[in-house]
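Input (structure):
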């Protein structure tokens, strides 16, 4: 099985800023490049943080209200300081959440979910920026054709990994949803087959109607004497 990595889907030409980049220049970079966030780098090219549209829009939250309402009253002291900042160093969210190019798409997705971020700065062994990967980039794996997903399941999982006969399991893939129907030689192989299929790039879900020849999960077969004593 081969999984697409962050290196396969990340953007390599990254628009960046420095801590001293002015607010207005950041807004212009967003508009000119049709992007919503940029990493802020130090002099060695290592990401210090990320400035996003959300960081910039906070500036509008503390603007004077024509009706006299207290602006930005819901912001804490740290967020208010960021809202009033004039350069990337004060505006950015830090530290930057990073990934490695060799990570699988699943690893990157887990990092995004854990840290509740929409993108990851991709760094090399020295911590220098080499790319950026977004949620949209990670979703590319679900654009795989059903035929390619099915071929990987049939040849890489059922045949090469599990060593099953060609006619043991019927595999269909529709819109990324995998259906497995057939008989496996041992019952314990069923969750294994399902788990391996779920790990294939592009799989949305796995439905199975699988029978088995031998129930090797029956405790009476593993410890017959202990079972008889208990009963």
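Output (sequence):
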């Amino acid at each position: 099985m081969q999984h697409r990595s962050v290196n396969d889907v990340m953007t390599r030409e990254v628009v960046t800023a420095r801590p001293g980049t002015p607010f207005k220049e950041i807004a212009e970079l967003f508009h000119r490049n049709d992007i919503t966030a940029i990493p802020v780098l130090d002099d060695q090219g290592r990401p210090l943080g990320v400035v996003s549209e959300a960081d910039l829009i906070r500036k509008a939250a503390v603007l004077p209200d024509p009706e006299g309402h207290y602006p930005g009253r819901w912001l804490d002291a740290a967020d208010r300081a960021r809202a009033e900042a004039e350069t990337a160093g004060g505006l950015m969210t830090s530290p930057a959440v990073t990934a490695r190019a060799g990570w699988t798409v699943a690893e990157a997705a887990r990092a995004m979910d854990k840290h509740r971020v929409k993108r990851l700065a991709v760094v090399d062994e020295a911590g220098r920026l080499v790319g950026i990967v977004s949620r949209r980039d990670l979703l590319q794996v679900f654009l795989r054709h059903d035929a390619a997903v099915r071929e990987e399941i049939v040849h890489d999982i059922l045949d090469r990994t599990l060593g099953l006969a060609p006619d043991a399991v019927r595999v269909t893939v529709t819109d990324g949803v995998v259906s497995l129907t057939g008989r496996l030689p041992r019952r314990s192989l069923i969750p294994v087959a399902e788990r391996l299929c779920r790990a294939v790039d592009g799989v949305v879900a796995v439905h199975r109607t699988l029978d088995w020849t031998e129930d090797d999960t029956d405790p009476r077969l593993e410890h017959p004497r202990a079972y008889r004593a208990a009963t």
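Notes: The chain has eleven helices and eight strands. Confidence is low (pLDDT under 50) at residues 224-231.
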